[in-house]
Amino acid sequence: MKYILAIDAGTTSSRAILFDKNGQQKAIAQHEFPQYFPQESWVEHNANEIWETQLKAVKKVLATKTIASTEIAAIGITNQRETTIIWDRKTGEPVHNAIVWQDRRTASICDDLSKHASTFLNKTGLILDAYFSGTKIKWILDSDPNIRQRAEAGDLAFGTVDSWLIWKLTNGKVHTTDVTNASRTLIYNIHDLSWDQELLSLLNIPASLLPTVVSSSEKVGETDADVLGVTLPISGIAGDQQAALFGQLCIEPGDVKNTYGTGCFCIMNTGEKAVASNNKMLTTIGWQRNGKTFYALEGSVFIAGALIQWLRDQLKIIKAAPEVEALAKTVKDNGGVTFIPALSGLGAPYWDPEATGAIMGITRGTEKGHIARAALEAIALRSRDIIIEMQKDARAEFSTLKVDGGATGNDLLMQIQADLLQKEVVRPNTTETTALGAAFFAGLAVGFWKDEDELKSIWEEDKTFQPKDNPNTERILSLWAKRIPKVLKDNG
Ligand code: ADP
User: Fold this and answer.
1) CATH class for domain 3-241?
2) What is the best residue among 410, 413, 431 to mutate for testing ligand 1's pocket, by most ligand atoms within 8 Å of CB?
């Protein structure tokens, strides 16, 4: 056997990637699917379109001339998390469009349940928020008495995107999800490792809807030959951030990775212990393998690469995102400028949804290079804010930050991050760490790779950024500490 096929079911596109034994990418196919915005703050996908684009991507990879499907050992799946699909068990037809993780329509359901917030937090590690699947399931069931009735009769199935794709790939034979996806639903008890009856009752969700929950790395079924033209074991499942954590081989407690995309997603392995956060970070399941459950702390920054988009699209001081690096290098430091990137409030650890952004410290000498530099520093500072708090929550000090995502191509940003954290920042060779993590889970389950040591031997870094003793670092940090409070609501 030569390959593992990773299915990467993202928020905007469906991808299939083939990896060889060295973790090298051998084939890739990608198809975008439409996003639907039926009302302000609502975001939907058509679950059949997710499936059709995913199937097309998989078939395209399988059709690669140099690759025989008999050489594929297994399939691993990673997916956009929390997005909620309910379908008919007999016909396989979704009863409603998928409600996407970004969708805020259930905020008022969360408000109504607010007195139970600590129950949800203690059992699931999650903040009672519209982001997660639980209230989205409730919303679909409440949207139509007929749907509710069919659910009560046991005719319907709920799943996140992983469940839905496995159901389709196995032609309706397997209805399952893994612990990482279950841990994002708001109805899964991450300590008992089971669906939680009290939470199901609070949300009025019948247990008959739910998939069985499996580990992240075990054989759950086979693709149906009628669907793919070939029978392949499915043996790895993990939500995207957790798959990336494993793909970055953050396998020891304290290991941490940060993804720099539109926002930043930071996730820290806390070992076999679920750590509660003092800063409203989420406690979540990192993965489960060989009977062991690893937990993680997760924090996100809403605006990261989006700040660079703002420089490009609104301020128009660059034409393309990568130009920001050269612009920032036209100056030797930020010239006293701090960019507070609160373009949509400020998340952890400030948690002020009403904060707005600011560029402070402008003088007659300020150039656009200073603003570009301050923007890069802002991305690194917001990530630092989160990582420092996570370290405190986990009481674990890390030595290396593993990074991925589109903005990590920016060497200056990576160096600023290393300097501000005074930690090594390591960028891997592959940019596809999420898909690689899913492949790792699938490959370990079928013996394609023997163990984590073998994975370590094939994992390649592209570049390590060593922290430098930069005289500006202290100034950047002290200006940040002084200026951030000025945008918080309490200070006008
Ligand atoms: P997403 O998965 O959230 O769409 P990507 O991982 O594709 O994000 O990264 C794209 C983001 O990274 C964009 O917000 C873009 O502004 C930013 N970006 C891309 N290249 C650079 C760069 N060289 N420097 C800084 N930001 C960048």
Assistant:
1) alpha beta
2) 410
- SS3 readout for the chain: CCEEEEEEECCCEEEEEEEECCCCEEEEEEEECCCECCCCCCCEECHHHHHHHHHHHHHHHHCCCCCCHHHEEEEEEEECCCCEEEEECCCCCECCCEECCCCCCCHHHHHHCHHHHHHHHHHHCCCCCCCCHHHHHHHHHHCCHHHHHHHHCCCEEEECHHHHHHHHHCCCCCCEEEHHHHCCCCCEECCCCEECHHHHHHCCCCHHHCCEEECCCCCCEECCHHHHCCCCEEEEEEEHHHHHHHHCCCCCCCCEEEEECCCEEEEEEEECCCCCCCCCCEEEEEEEECCEEEEEEEEEECCCHHHHHHHHHCCCCCCCCCHHHHHHCCCCCCCCCEEECCECEECCCCCECCCCCEEECCCCCCCHHHHHHHHHHHHHHHHHHHHHHHHHHHCCCCCEEEEECHHHHCHHHHHHHHHHHCCEEEEECCCCHHHHHHHHHHHHHCCCCCCHHHHHHHCCEEEEECCCCCCHHHHHHHHHHHHHHHHCHHHC
Residue bearing the CA closest to ligand 1, atom 23 = 322
Distance 265 CA to ligand 1 centre (A): 13
Question: In this predicted model, what pLDDT tens digit does every residue of 329-381 receive, in sequence order?
Answer: 999 999 999 999 998 788 888 888 788 899 999 999 999 999 999 999 999 99
Give me ligand 1 centre to Cα 405, in Å.
7
Show me where the domains of the chain are located. Answer: 3-241
Band of residue 490 on the pLDDT scale cut at 50, 70, 90: low
Residue located nearest, by CA, to atom 25 of ligand 1:
407
* Ligand 1 center from residue 407 Cα (angstroms): 4
Q: How far is the CA of 48 from the centre of ligand 1 (A)?
A: 29
Query: Atom 2 of ligand 1 has which residue's CA nearest to it?
Result: 261
pLDDT at residue 103 in the model: 86
| Ligand 1 first shell, C-beta below 6 A | 261-262, 305-306, 308-309, 321-322, 324-325, 405-407, 409-410, 413
User: Given the CA of residue 376, which atom of ligand 1 is nearest to it?
Assistant: 25
pLDDT digits (tens, 9 = 90+) for 50-76: 999 999 999 999 998 888 888 999 999
Take atom 16 of ligand 1 and give the residue whose Cα is closest: 305
Residues above pLDDT 90, as percent of the chain: 83
pLDDT in tens, 189-230: 999 999 999 999 999 999 999 999 999 999 999 999 999 989
